[in-house]
Specification:
alpha/beta, Alpha-Beta Plaits, two-stranded antiparallel sheet, 6 helices, 9 strands, globular
């Protein structure tokens, strides 16, 4: 859909997993969901988050693939590994800063969100965004986001010294131009008990 962008807003996720179920219905996924769904702070909260592939401008997953099986289209969509080329080495899984790709041994292939290419390439919305009741996953026009949200869409991420630009936007507090993700921010820093 020309002029539509994908937005992820983890603060809106209500944990219904409708996106997970809808993703399984996408024709290119063979009945397997490509949504990365998890609990944010399992011991202390019921808060959840659903993520899709962020479709990096310079995809690390493709860079580390020894079989040249991962391709990025001219539209910016980073596809699942080409079945005929994928050797299931897991380099892409280990290299992705967002932890998105998954190896499916039964298919001997890396598969991940391809932004419902079978739908979006013919002018339809992604399955997950179509069913998300809270719009935690949204596939809409940028002007709709600007009109309806206080948060700011950001597509620049910082992982230590590395900067990653993406096609998919994450909603961040107004005034933020990037999202810094440092694994040490999530490590326990107290005395062992």
């Amino acid at each position: 859909m020309f002029g539509y962008e994908f937005y992820v807003d983890t603060s809106r996720c209500i944990g219904c997993q409708a996106c997970v179920e809808a993703c399984e219905e996408c024709d290119t996924h063979r009945g397997v969901s490509m949504i990365n769904f998890d609990y944010i702070d399992r011991p202390g909260s019921i808060a959840t988050a659903a993520f899709v592939c962020f479709h990096c401008e310079d995809p690390t997953c493709a860079q580390v693939c020894p079989a040249d099986a991962i391709k990025k289209g001219v539209d910016g969509i980073v596809q699942s590994a080409l079945k005929a080329r994928c050797i299931g080495c897991s380099n892409c899984v280990l290299a992705c800063p967002f932890g998105i790709p998954k190896i499916f041994p039964e298919y001997q292939q890396m598969m991940k969100c391809d932004m419902c290419y079978d739908r979006t390439s013919v002018g339809k919305r992604t399955m997950c965004a179509t069913v998300c009741p809270s719009q935690a996953l949204a596939y809409v026009r940028p002007e709709d986001i600007a009109r309806d949200r206080r948060e700011k869409p950001v597509s620049e991420f910082v992982f230590g010294n590395a900067r990653v630009s993406t096609k998919v936007f994450m909603m961040a507090p107004a005034g933020r131009d990037e999202i810094a993700i440092d694994v040490t921010d999530y490590m326990w820093h107290g005395e062992p008990s």
